[in-house]
Amino acid sequence: MKYTAPRGTRDLKDREAQAFQALEESARRIFQRYGYEEIRTPVFENVELFKRAVGDTTDIVEKEMYVFEDRGGRKLALRPEGTAGIVRAYLEHAWDKSGGIKKLFYIGPMFRAERPQAGRYREFWQIGAEFFGNPSAQADADVLLLLQDLLAASGLTEVKFLINSIGCAACRPVFREALLKYLDSKQGCLCDDCKRRLARNPLRCLDCKKDMAHFSDAPKMRDSLCGACQAHDQELKGLLTSVQFPYEEAPCLVRGLDYYSRTVFEITAPGLGAQDALGAGGRYDSLVKTLGGPDIPAIGFALGMDRMASAKYGDSLSAGIQPNACSRIFVALAGQGTGMTGFRVLQDLRKAGCTAEIGAPGKSLKAQMRWADAWKAGFVVIVGEEELKRGRVILKNLQKHEQKEIEIENLKSEIEEQREKS
Ligand code: ATP
Ligand code: MG
Question: Could you give the 3-state DSSP secondary structure of residue 414?
Answer without folding.
Answer: helix
